[in-house]
Task: structure prediction
Amino acid sequence: AAQAAGLPAMRSACTAPSGLPKLRLLQGPANPHHQRSGLTSPLLANLHETMRIAVDVMGGDHGPAEAVAGACKALEENSAITQVLLVGQPATIKSALCAHAETDRLRIVPAADVLTMENKPVEALHRKKDTSIARAVALLKEGEADALVSPGNTGGIVAAATLGLRTIEGIDRPALAAVIPAPANEFLLLD
Result:
C-alpha cells in the first residue's frame, strides 16, 4: 500500500546509533475504522472525552493576539475542549480577547513574567519565578490542565516541563514528538 501511494516501504529493523542500547520501531497496527481528523487518531485514542488545555499566550514570535485567536478558533471548532486556560499577563490577554466572542470555556490564569526567545531557558526559569510557561506546566502538574500548548521558546518549554514535571523513571532526556500521518495509520516521531 505504501508503494502504491508513492511512499517508501517501512524498514522492519535498523541498527541503533552508538550510545543507544536498542532502537525499536513503534508503529501500531492499521485501523481501517478510524477517521483521520483531529482527536480521532488512534495515537490519541486514550485522551479524555473532555479536555482542558493550558495555552502559554505570552510565548511566540507573533505575540499573544495570535495565540488567543488560535485558542478561540479551537474552542469554536472542537466541542471536546471543555476549557482553555490562557496563561500570561491578564491585561495583555484581555486586550487580545476583545476581538473574539465571549465564552465561559476560557479562563485567564495570571503569570507576571515572560520567557522570551532571547532568554537562556534554564537560567531564565530560575531567575524569573512566575513565567507563563512555568505556570502552564504547573497547571498540568496540579491536574488543572490535560495538555499544554505554547508557541514560545522550544528550549524553554522543554526546560520548564523537565524542571516542573520531571522525566519518566528510566528516561534521562526529554524528546519532542509529532504525530505523522501515513496512508494506513499514523506514527509518533521522536526527536
In short: The helical segments are 64-77, 90-97, 121-127, 132-141, 154-165. The longest strand covers residues 81-88. The radius of gyration is 19 Å. The chain has a mean pLDDT of 79.
